[in-house]
Amino acid sequence: MKQIYLDNNATTPVDERVLDVMLPYLKGMYGNPSSVHFSGREAKAAMENAREQVAKFINADPSEIYFTSGGTESDNIALKGAAILNRNKRNHVIVSSIEHHAILESAHYLEKEGFKVDYLGVDKDGFVSSDELKDKITDKTSIVSIMQANNEVGSIQDIPTLSAITKEAGAVFHTDSVQAAGKLKIDVDELGCDMLSISGHKVYGPKGIGIIYIKKGKRIAPLFHGGHHEKKRRAGTENIPGIVGIGTALELAESLRESEHHRIDALAEFFIDGVMKAVPNVYMNGPRSDRRVSSTVNLSFEYIEGESIILSLDMKGIGVASGSACTSGSLSASHVLTAMSVPIELAQGSIRFSMGRFTTKEDLEYTISVLPEIIEKLRLMSPLYSKK
Amino acid sequence: MTKKKKVLVAVSGGVDSSTALYLLKEAGYEVIAGHMKLWDYDEVGGDLHKDGRCCSIDSINDLHQLCNALSVPLYIFDFSKQFKEVVIENFVSEYKAGRTPSPCVICNTELKWNSFLKKAEELECDYIATGHYGQVEFDDTGNRYLIKKGIDDSRDQSYFLWGLDQKALSKTLFPLGGFEKSQIREIAKKMNLKTAKKPESREICFIADDNYHRFLKEWEEKQGRRFEPGEIINERGEVIGQHQGTVFYTIGQRRGLGVSNPTPLYVNQIDAGNNKIIVGDNEALLRNRMIVTDINWVAFDNLRDKIEAEVKIRYLHNPALATINVIDETSAEVIFDENQRAITPGQSTVFYYGNILLGGGVIS
User: Fold this and answer.
1) Which of A277, A371, B144, B329 has the most CB atoms within 10 Å of its CB?
2) A-chain residues within 8 Å CB-CB of B122?
């Protein structure tokens, strides 16, 4: 059966060009960059080359880039690292209510540890209000973390404004750019952020690698203690194949960004129009504008459960998600849609279609063609639909 | 070529359902595996890292490997909210009413042959299958689906299936009903099914440590309630001891009463309304009559007058001959030929004619 992958926000296929640069480091070049001898030097050079590629991608200095195991670790380092370091002077943390669980669960952990945490609400399109941040921030706030682009609905926050408010209050600003990387321009100066997270496997690179940008002069308490790796901010022998992979993946993503942006924009509009025309009672979650990462299309199909749609599409070889991949298997409505005040019945019937570099118009045409029958079948079985 | 029949198989991670999955795949069905997530350690207590079995992350991980090896898609269905409302809360309230519930029966009718069956229909499956040792057969003369005992008498699980209706049965396969348990273990071992060596449980799934006292206590404490101690009295109404809460006792129980008496005493009655446990000697536990409610007849639509049958009053009970006198559509009076020990209100009872399950109900 033909497989159509529309779950690129969960993970992306590894681009062959990325795989090619990684292979030598999985085969012959096994060196530990901390070693003094020939094999160490080789690995170290590859790592520093990748660090430069990453730095260039976000317009930072290579000395401000730290390699981690992925987006979750980067988010943990940022939130816990800044909060714990400053706990005696500032014990207040602010995050948005639509963050990824890597941030939300870290915030819950900090709450249990005695920190005060505020969760900023969002409007119906998934946008944080800068006024609310102004209201909540105090001279006790150590860190504010607000994601650049949301993984479920794609809303893009006004990071420069939010980071400026944070700076004024003397707090550190972190943004989770995991879903923005490769899709939006990322310039740490323009964004005004002190810390920023990126994950390798969301940008056609390998899993198990991520980066955290920490602006020069900003300090964190490390999570991992051990050797002198990453200037003692992240102990552990470096994942050289992954590091080489993420460097090339980001470089490649930047070179394709403009053209991909136009291509995906057009595909997304085609898809939204197509589904809405083919199926009645469909609602879009998140903005239908340039304030959304256009590859993320979140649609609610009234009267039915998202899970049922996912399974039926899977039977047809189409891979999609409801909510985020990390929370699937639980039927509670998405925290993002709940925060956007999407009614629970619609939130439960939501499906996230996320397109990517390898998505074609034919993929979408096929998906549009099978949806009406599936939705009709499921609605006929739904007690909510028959009551209508 | 006719289109392959499609089956959604309920898989727990245990050897029985895994082998059922394998057998159906071998038999040429198009097979999908479905795992029902029914509860969470956070909710029901017990120690995930010590007692972990069905419904734990580890068994789901094993299932993924097994299904991948068999090239069968696996889906996890989260029914935990419904399970809590329909099964666990009923379990607790039955105990609090002085009755001894059969949660597996409710889980079968409300979850497996309802919500799970609905998932199967959504996935355009013709059948669901489970690893129960029971048989379902279409009887041409009666134009009905019948439930029969599994051929392995020591493993037969038809007791738990009395609540199923004709529509449910028409969509049900029990691939293990024609096998002995030892054969199933053999097949699982031969095929190197990952789940072959798992220890198995015949206890209540959501009480992983088999300690229902611990479970009930914690459950009530979470709601800010506790069980009230009260009196243990004998048949003459004399107070002879104290109990820690009526829920911790079942009819026929002898141990743990904490009362001294020249002859052995057994729990004979649980009077939850007055918070009293009534004890008596073994003789007092013997009865030849019971009233059964919530009856579902499987082998026929309705009982008109009376019928003789073999009756089981709990899962591990040797069926006893009795006459069932109809009261109304869903209740009946059962008169045993011989006295039975510890007929327990709340438990399921089932009626057999030979190996055919006529129906069942709840002892009131």
Assistant:
1) A371
2) 308, 311-312, 377-378, 381
Give the pLDDT band (50/70/90) at residue B42: confident
Return the residue of A nearest to B34 by Cα. Answer: A311
- Tell me how far apart the alpha carbons of residues B221 and B46 are, in angstroms, rounded to a whole number: 14
Per residue in B202-236, pLDDT (tens digit) is: 678 898 888 899 999 999 999 999 999 999 999 89
Structure tokens that stand for A90 in this block: 């500032």
Structure tokens at B78: 């989260």
CA–chain centroid gap for A183, Å, is 11
A259 CB near a chain B CB, below 8 Å?
Answer: no
pLDDT exceeding 90 applies to what percent of chain A? Answer: 93
Say if B61 is an interface residue toward chain A (CB within 8 Å): no
| Pairwise CA distance, residues A124 & A47, whole Å | 43
**Nearest Cα residue to A383 out of B75, B90, B115, B120:** B115
What average pLDDT does chain A have? Answer: 95
Chain B hits for A312, CB-CB cut-off 8 Å, are 122-123
A314–chain B Cβ distance below 8 A for any pair = yes
Which chain A residue's Cα is nearest to B75?
A311
The C-alpha atoms of residue B220 and residue B179 are separated, in whole angstroms, by 42
Residue A277: C-alpha distances to residues A170, A273, A274, A369, B293 (Å): 50, 6, 5, 11, 53
How far, CA to CA in Å, does B7 sit from each of B18, B27, B67?
Answer: 14, 11, 14
Q: Is B205 a catalytic residue?
A: yes
8 A C-beta contact, residue B254 and residue B266: yes
Within 13 Å and on the Cβ side, how many CA atoms surround B338? 6
Rounded to an integer, what distance in angstroms lies between the CA atom of residue B195 and that of residue A289?
51
Taking the Cβ of residue A344 and every Cβ of chain B, the question of whether any pair is shorter than 8 Å is answered with no
Q: How far apart are CA A65 and CA A234, in angstroms?
A: 11
Q: In angstroms, rounded to a whole number, what is the distance separating the alpha carbons of residues B97 and A351?
A: 44
Within A169-238, where are the H helices?
Answer: 188-191
How large is the ipTM?
0.82
Which of B37, B73, B122 lies closest to A381 in CB terms? B122
Q: Which residue has the tokens 């609090």?
A: B96
| Active site positions of A, annotated | 326
Contacts of A314 in chain B (CB under 8 A): 73
Distance from CA of B128 to the nearest CA of A (A): 16
The rounded distance, in Å, linking the Cα atoms of B324 and B340 is 15
Instruction: Report how far apart the first and last C-alpha atoms of chain B are (Å, whole number).
Output: 53
Q: How far is CA A118 from CA A141, A173, A327, A335, in A?
A: 10, 14, 22, 16
Identity (one letter) of the amino acid at B289?
R
pLDDT higher than threshold 90 for residue B258: no
Q: What does the radius of gyration of chain B's CA atoms come to, in whole angstroms?
A: 22
How far is B277 from B279, CA to CA, in rounded Å? 6
Structure tokens at B49: 């890292």
Q: Identity (one letter) of the amino acid at B81?
A: K
Tell me whether A342 touches chain B (CB under 8 Å): no
Mind telling me how many Å the CA of A312 is from chain B's nearest CA? 6
Instruction: Locate B55 and state its tokens.
Output: 């419904």
Pick from A312, A330, A331: CB nearest B123? A312
Of B76, B121, B123, the CB nearest to A315: B123
Residue B18 near residue B188 (C-beta atoms within 8 A):
yes
Contact with chain A for residue B301, Cβ under 8 A: no
